[in-house]
Design a protein that fits this description.
The protein folds into 2 domains: about 140 residues, Rossmann fold (3-Layer(aba) Sandwich); about 110 residues, N-(1-d-carboxylethyl)-l-norvaline Dehydrogenase, domain 2. About 55% of the residues lie in helices and about 10% in strands. Strands 2-1-3-4-5-6-7 form a 7-stranded mixed beta sheet, with helices on both faces. Strand 6, helix 6 and strand 7 form a beta-alpha-beta unit. It is globular and about 65 Å long.
Length: about 300
């Protein structure tokens, strides 16, 4: 190759290299700008979940989808130690079971107590008031989540309290219906209705098995007897005279919305045991519940 040809080749290669550098520079500027935009965005406040079971997992997914970091605290972890690492979370959602609720609430640090969310079945104001917790966010959960099965949500859930919007947004991201309650009176009605539903179908289901529609169609007298004894207990626990007619109609409405819902579950015997303990504490006769326990001992 003569000198002129070699020089032309150098010029051509230099032009290609310059063009390549220009492309790389532009791409680098784009990547740097994108990185800056992503990592300088204000991070949303974290959410703590106490107990990551099936329900806790559903809410964790919803919070993550709405951009909140989620910090699980599982059995065996030191709550006080973990709270010191995250002193100001947006919400501390307690998802443990009914029997574990009071021991967990006793361990909640002072600076978390105004940020609590509760969602247990059989929940009533007396349980958080006993721990001097003033205004928790309370969710009445009506959707089902079983291991290996997608969420089933034929009946809308309900929420009341400071983090109600947060809960609604998280559940909406999962296509789970949830409406916001307007006051504490509506919250109490909603909690009692859920208690009436879960206790009636679980306890009567020990006798009948089957679905809620079959319970009402084939064993209506038993269902009404169990429901009325449950309402006696709920009146004792709330210290109020409850609107029984409206609550019983709400029970039937729930049956209609999810007629294929199975009555019994693995928690049914424990629910019966707790109901009878409450009846005893209140000096209430509960002959139907007593008869069911006699035939279905723990």
């Amino acid at each position: 190759m003569d000198g002129g040809g070699y020089g032309c080749l150098l010029i051509r290669d230099a032009s290609i290299a310059q063009a390549g550098c220009s492309v790389l520079y532009k791409n680098w500027r784009f990547i740097a700008t994108l990185y800056k935009r992503i990592f300088t965005l204000p991070m949303k406040t974290p959410i703590v979940i106490l107990g990551i079971g099936e329900l806790g997992g559903v809410f964790a997914r919803g919070f993550l989808r709405t951009g909140h970091p989620v910090y699980p605290i599982t059995r065996g972890m030191d709550i006080e130690h973990e709270a010191a690492q995250i002193p100001e979370p947006e919400l501390v959602l307690v998802t443990v079971g009914e029997d574990s609720l009071q021991p967990i609430l006793q361990q909640i640090p002072r600076y978390w107590r105004s940020r609590l969310g509760l969602l247990q079945n059989e929940l009533l104001p007396r349980y958080w008031e006993a721990q001097a917790i003033a205004k928790p966010t309370v969710i009445s959960v009506w959707f089902d989540k079983k291991p290996g099965i997608d969420v089933k949500s034929p009946i809308p859930s309900a929420v009341y309290g400071p983090a109600a919007n947060l809960i609604q947004e998280a559940l909406a991201s999962l296509d789970i219906a949830c409406h916001r309650l307007v006051d504490e009176q509506q919250l109490l009605f909603t909690l009692v209705l859920k208690n009436l539903y879960i206790l009636t179908v679980n306890i009567a289901g020990l006798e009948t098995n089957g679905t809620v529609s079959e319970l009402w169609r084939n064993h209506r007298e038993l269902a009404e007897q169990v429901a009325n004894e449950i309402l006696d207990i709920q009146e004792y626990l709330t210290g109020r005279t409850l609107p029984r007619k409206c609550l019983l109609q709400g029970l039937l409405d729930a049956f209609d919305l999810d007629p294929a819902h199975r009555c019994t579950g693995r928690s049914a015997p424990q629910r019966l045991r707790r109901a009878l303990e409450h009846a005893k504490q209140g000096g209430l006769a509960a002959p139907v519940l007593q008869g069911i326990q006699t035939r279905h001992p723990l």
